[in-house]
Amino acid sequence: MTIRTRLILSTFLLQVLSMALLGWGVLVVRRQFQDRDRRNSALQIRTAVERAALDSLIQKDDVALLSYLKFLQVQHPAIAQVRILWSNKGRERRAVVGTIPPGADAHESRMVVSDPRDSERLIDLDLALNYAVLERPFWDTNRRLGKIILLVWGMTSLLGLGVSFLIARGLTKPIKELSRLASEIGAGKLGGKLVWDSDDELGGLVRAFNSMSLRLEEFDSIKRNFVSSVTHELRSPLGAIESFLQLIREKMTAGTPEGMAQSKEFLERIQVNVRRLSGFINDLLDVAKIEKGKMECLLKPMELPIVANEVCQFFEAKALQQGIAITNRLPELPAVMGDSGRVRQVLVNLVANGLKFTSQGGQIWIAGEQFRDGGTRWIEVTVGDTGRGMDAADCGRLFQPFSQGRNITEGVTGHKGTGLGLYIVKSIVDQHGGKIEVKSAPGQGTRISFSLRVAA
User: What is the pTM of this model?
Assistant: First the structure.
């Protein structure tokens, strides 16, 4: 059974039940009013009989009482029988007016009336009322009321069925569309959106689903880019190594001194490509540790300027080759709590990015300053460059895994990386309890800052 059918049936049955309860309530209230009217009618009859008996005592006319009781029987058919007992100073006389029909719902009540001038003169009356006759006027009213209730119940049920259908269709339409869109996503058609303008729960569900669809499209794009990057990262150095090995084999076969010297140069290039492969594999291992929550940093007091100076020296030759000035501007600072190997990895990644996007004649620097936050002293380390910079969109996804901005994909030749470096950088900074932020604008360079806690 579909959700729409269940909603229609549930709403319809709920309305039918509500109308049934309402009709039952009306009938119960009507019955209470009828019981009250029946009691009032019975009271009026008893009062009339009692008054007739009193008048006959006062007028000393017993025949008038019998005549009046017969008249009352005609006026009030509910009077089934009246048994009369006259008492006057020990003398008694009886009379009966009417006969109780067989099977009648007769209710008897006794009344004793005395002469106000002579208390020994009494009339004892046993009045039998047929309650079925008393209720007879209400039967037609009840039948008409029942027909009206059934008519209203039927009309409202049909109306409720239509309203239930409309409500169910309105509720299930976006769910049906979401199911269709999910099937398309399952078939590989990513990025689809569903237009549904409402601020209710369904609107929130549609917006969340649209966001998920866009994120899946982004992840698919990231996956494709990652596969392409991984293929390039593996194929380029392996291809170079294979070529150099072939050249070395040829030079060694020739056995000339020049060939041996060139073979040595080729071996150094092979070593460079091996380091590149090793770095790529280490990045993948670090990402796996981060995803499993097993990235660990051994924090102990360390001298930040010494590590920064080592990083500058490491890139000095490459920076000189590209015509870029790299400087360590860190002043004399107190020791910080950090894992020197991981902090070095952070600086290496940031400086390498700066070299990648800074043109000849540019500058890269490492700077830092102290600040206090909530009674704790921190050092903010900044790696800045005068490169091409980034827009806000690229800055927003800078620290996401396997994500690269347009400044990577547009206009950069050579080694482009895999989009893992800055994700690893942020994870390392998080492990140190610090924060990382980026300030950049197109054509105005980039400054990436992270904080480390000062050792006590």
Answer: 0.51
